[in-house]
User: Fold this.
Amino acid sequence: MLGLLTPIASGWLAASSGTFGWLLDLATHWQWLYLGSLVLAISVLSLGDRRWLLALLAIPLPWMTPSQHAPRLEADQASKQSVLSVASANVHLDNRDLTALARWLLHASPDIVVLHEVSPQYAVSLEGLDGYPYRFAAPRDDPFGMAVLSRLPLTQARLVGGEDEIQHLEATVSWRGENVRLVALHPMPPLTPHDHRVRNERLRALAAGAKATGQPTIIAGDLNATPWSSAFNGLDGMGLRRATGLAATWPAVGRGWLGIPIDHVLVSAHWAVADHQTGPHIGSDHLPVMARLALGTDRGI
Assistant:
């Protein structure tokens, strides 16, 4: 029960860069584990005293406490509007086999693909992947290499450094007369209070930048944070919301059973979500995600 309440407490300490705030934030991620444990415990305890069943009132908490989701399009609206599909996948640094990813991309057919943990060897394999004429790759021998594949014109692609010397990628995608700002981000996992602070500050800086530009913006990547994390605190107020869901993406074993959702597509207020999905195993310890997006009629401004 305490675990299910940690997102509320962590939100109160979102501005903290101390050890307690860091540890509390780490505890927020495991909402599905807490939920499964609660249901199991209450099932056993209620055999002796039915009053324990009252604790099941906490079951909705994992759906009530995450960061805000972007507005959804009704099915009839989605069929009438142009949709931009964006996928994000952490392919794993040691993965050398492109087969499963290529099969999923052929089936899901995203317009833009953001890849993380791209090694130099994997980047070479990507050169043989058809259907994405516009590309930008920045492979590395550590977990912070990345690549963007696009069916749409991709311009002004550049790497932007951060306090921790981990870069993110920014580019402009031309889509139906609009310049869409694309950000690919994979921050350091919050292994220390410092990493926790840097991740949170970077997300807030990107959200503030998206709001300041006024452009339709998409941020995609392995954010090493779940929707219950303090990393998302305050992003809603700056117009940055989730376009993907709450299904676990890491670890990929057992389709993420009792794992945590740390791979996301975030969007500025310009966008509405037609649908989203979690993809299959692609030879990584992460599952990929994809969101189908449409520009709102008011442009979100």
Notes: Residues 2-64 form one domain. The chain has a mean pLDDT of 93. Residues 193-213 form the longest helix (21 residues). The two ends are 40 Å apart (CA to CA).
